[in-house]
Each structure stands twice: as structure tokens, then as C-alpha cells.
């Protein structure tokens, strides 16, 4: 069905395409249109509306039940369930799956029973459509929305929007699992595993570091001794996410320079050991690990966004987007000559975050 300007045309009574002499093909002889029960029976139409709305409402209930199940069942709950799967797995899978299924089935029924049902033929046109054709397309889209009846079927429209909207609740809840356990507790960001008299060890081998073995110009990547627990040091063994979090927060770099070159911050005059100074390895911009050291200038560069810190001058920022100096770890030596921490960092390590001022 088309007229001379390629705009689809249908008859009001039969919805059978009408071809004009200008059409490039003849009428193929489509059969008369078969009306659906919902097209001719107002009761059937209303009944279909209620059925579709019921599906959307059930989808909303299922999404809410997903949230309830998420907080009600712990992972590992194993009361009798299908195929031996835990209560959390089954309840979350069933409720979320049912919500998605009901929304999909409801939309399919909306299209099959209530949206416009008419045959159309539209002639092909060049890829670069004239402006009048574009305007006609927009008009056709608007006409399609009108024919779908969403505007005059508030029950279907509102329940469908409600079902899709409530489906966002499980998405929001599942965002918690992007950080395991209580990792979203920002107070944990203010502290690391470092504690008084904890030895500094090499980050790969876990061997303690003698102050005497570090030469001027050296940069050593190191970690807390607690990350390498043994029977001798007595530190508990960490596992999984907790181990990874503490390892990331506790990473440090150790540098030795001429003591006269160090410009200490007030109150930190005794935080170094004969020119050996220690800072967090985590950039204060977005948390990348820093490692590129220029021994003649004592500058260290973050490879991610080129923030540059002067380790001789309290690791102050001299270039780049970082807004704070690297946190400094106070050092001492134990009776065997090994480097140890005097305490934890006195400020949060890593990138700034929204609750930093509250720590």
C-alpha cells in the first residue's frame, strides 16, 4: 500500500493494501484481513488487558521477592532444594528468572492481542532519504505509538512500566556483590595491616630487609611481613578478598638517599633511618601502583596518568593530576637491624574518596 510519495496507504474497512497505477508491482492478491477477538469484542479486549497487567504485576512481585531472598538466605544455606543447590541459589534464580519471564510474556501478549494488526507494504527507497520521507517516518512512528494503544490503556502502560522499573531493584542490590563482604565499609580504607614493629619484607620473596643492605639510589618494592605468615612470625593467614585488599593497601616503596637531601615534614623528622625513607606504592590519584624512579632527582612517576612525586620532599606532587602527597610510613630498625614500621600510616592510602574528611 503506497501512494506516489511512498507513504503507506490502507483502506479503513478491510486494511487490504490499495495499489495505484504508479506502483512498480501489481497487487499480489492478499487475502481479506482476519480480525482478532480483541479487535471486535470489547470484553475480550478488556480481558486481555487484565491478563497482561496481571503478568506485569506478578513480575513486580517476583522482583521484590528477589530482594527479600537476597537478604534472607546466606550463601551456603543447604536445606533441601532442587538438585542439591542451596536456598540462596534457588531462590534468587527462580525469582529473578520469573520476573524476566513474566515481563517478556506480557510484552508478547501485548503485541499479539492489543497492538495494531494490519498488513502493510512499503516500497524501498534510496539509503539517503529525502527530508519529506524522514518526516513521514517520524509521523509513522508516532502513528504506531497511537495504534499500540499504550496511551489509552493506562492499566497496561502503568503495570508494564512498573514491572520494568521494579526490576531495577535486583540490579541495585546485586551491586553490593561487586565488593565482597564488608568491603563497602569505607572506614576500612583509612587503615592498613601495618602495625608497630612489623618488619618490611620484599614483595615477592617475603624476606626481611636489613637497613645495611640498601644502597643509596636503590628503590625496593616491599610489603608487610603479615602478608607472608609463618610459624615463626605468628601472623594469621589471610585468604581470598581480604588477602588481596590488605596486600593492595599495604604495598610500599623503600628508597635510600643522602640524609641531607631529605626535607622532612614537621613532626616526621624521625621517620627515616639513615636516609632510608618509605612511602605507599599506591598513587593518590586513582590508585595505580607507582614504580618509575629517577634516582638523580628522587622523583617517582605513576605510569597511569603521569603524576610525579618528589620523594626527597615528603613525596609532594610536582606534576600531574594527583592532589595529595604519597602517605609516608614511619620507619625504625629492630635489634637485628631489620627495617620495621613504627606504626600504621597516619592517613588513608590511595585515591581520594567521598568520606575521606570523616576519617
Automatic annotation (TrEMBL):
Homology family: Belongs to the Rieske iron-sulfur protein family.
Cofactor annotation: [2Fe-2S] cluster
Ranges in a coiled coil: none
Ranges of residues in domain Rieske: 271-340
Gene Ontology CC terms: plasma membrane
A GO term, aspect molecular function: oxidoreductase activity, acting on paired donors, with incorporation or reduction of molecular oxygen
Major location (coarse): membrane
UniProt superkingdom: Bacteria
Lineage: Bacteria, Bacillati, Actinomycetota, Actinomycetes, Propionibacteriales
InterPro entries, per database record: QcrA_N, Rieske_2Fe-2S, Rieske_2Fe-2S_sf, Rieske_Fe-S_prot, Rieske_Fe-S_prot_C
Topology term for the membrane: Multi-pass membrane protein
Role noted for this protein: Iron-sulfur subunit of the cytochrome bc1 complex, an essential component of the respiratory electron transport chain required for ATP synthesis. The bc1 complex catalyzes the oxidation of menaquinol and the reduction of cytochrome c in the respiratory chain. The bc1 complex operates through a Q-cycle mechanism that couples electron transfer to generation of the proton gradient that drives ATP synthesis.
Pfam family, one: QcrA_N
Location of region: Disordered: 1-44
Protein localization: Cell membrane
Organism this protein belongs to: Nocardioides alpinus
Keywords: 2Fe-2S, Cell membrane, Disulfide bond, Electron transport, Iron, Iron-sulfur, Membrane, Metal-binding, Oxidoreductase, Respiratory chain, Transmembrane, Transmembrane helix, Transport
TM spans (from-to): 52-73, 85-110
Protein's name in the database: Cytochrome bc1 complex Rieske iron-sulfur subunit
Amino acid at each position: 500500500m503506497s501512494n506516489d510519495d511512498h507513504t503507506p496507504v490502507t483502506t479503513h474497512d478491510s486494511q487490504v493494501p490499495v495499489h495505484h497505477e504508479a506502483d512498480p508491482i501489481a497487487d499480489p492478491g492478499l487475502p481479506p484481513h482476519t480480525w482478532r477477538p480483541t479487535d471486535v469484542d470489547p470484553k475480550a479486549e478488556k480481558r486481555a488487558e487484565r491478563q497482561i497487567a496481571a503478568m506485569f504485576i506478578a513480575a513486580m512481585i517476583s522482583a521484590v521477592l528477589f530482594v527479600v531472598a537476597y537478604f534472607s538466605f546466606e550463601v551456603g544455606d543447604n536445606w533441601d532444594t532442587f538438585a542439591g543447590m542451596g536456598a540462596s541459589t534457588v531462590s534468587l534464580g527462580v525469582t529473578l528468572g520469573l520476573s524476566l519471564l513474566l515481563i517478556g510474556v506480557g510484552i508478547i501478549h501485548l503485541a499479539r492481542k492489543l497492538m495494531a494488526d494490519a498488513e502493510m507494504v512499503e516500497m524501498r527507497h534510496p539509503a539517503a532519504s529525502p527530508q519529506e520521507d524522514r518526516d513521514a517516518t517520524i509521523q509513522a512512528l508516532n502513528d504506531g505509538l497511537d495504534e499500540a494503544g499504550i496511551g489509552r490503556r493506562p492499566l497496561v502502560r502503568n503495570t508494564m512500566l512498573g514491572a520494568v522499573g521494579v526490576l531495577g531493584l535486583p540490579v541495585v542490590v546485586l551491586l553490593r556483590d561487586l565488593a565482597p563482604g564488608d568491603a563497602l565499609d569505607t572506614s576500612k580504607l583509612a587503615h592498613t595491616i601495618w602495625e608497630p614493629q612489623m618488619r618490611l619484607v620484599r614483595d615477592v620473596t617475603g624476606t626481611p630487609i636489613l637497613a645495611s643492605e640498601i644502597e643509596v639510589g636503590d628503590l625496593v618494592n616491599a610489603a608487610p611481613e603479615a602478608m607472608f605468615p609463618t610459624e615463626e612470625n605468628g601472623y594469621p593467614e589471610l585468604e581470598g578478598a581480604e588477602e588481596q585488599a590488605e596486600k593492595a593497601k599495604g604495598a610500599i616503596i623503600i628508597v635510600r638517599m643522602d640524609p641531607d637531601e631529605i626535607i622532612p615534614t614537621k613532626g616526621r623528622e624521625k621517620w627515616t633511618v639513615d636516609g632510608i625513607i618509605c612511602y605507599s606504592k599506591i598513587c593518590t590519584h586513582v590508585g595505580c601502583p607507582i614504580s618509575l624512579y629517577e634516582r638523580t632527582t628522587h622523583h617517582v612517576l605513576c605510569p597511569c596518568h603521569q603524576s610525579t612525586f618528589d620523594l626527597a620532599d615528603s613525596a609532594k606532587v610536582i606534576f600531574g593530576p594527583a592532589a595529595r602527597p604519597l602517605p609516608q610510613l614511619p620507619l625504625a630498625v629492630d635489634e637485628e637491624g631489620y627495617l620495621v614500621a613504627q606504626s600504621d600510616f597516619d592517613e588513608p592510602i590511595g585515591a581520594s574518596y567521598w568520606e575521606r574528611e570523616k576519617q
